[in-house]
Amino acid sequence: MLSILYLNTFFYYVSKIPMVDDSIPDQLQCTTCLLPMQYQLKIDGKFLWQCFKCGKKYFVSKNINDSIEESWSPPR
Fold it and tell me: How many CB atoms lie within 10 A of CB 67?
């Protein structure tokens, strides 16, 4: 059986956890250098986003159920 003191302490700590902001960001940021990525073109129905500092590329599909493909290329 749980004591009332334990439950009061438990709910105090649970209520202090901050909420996660999972809203859609205004821009796509590179996960390596945290700079905004730039949209390049559309290849095979997927949008190509690229970071010009580190060369990371994301291929983003219109379909929300598809995963995001990640690849590397030399920076420009």
Answer: 9
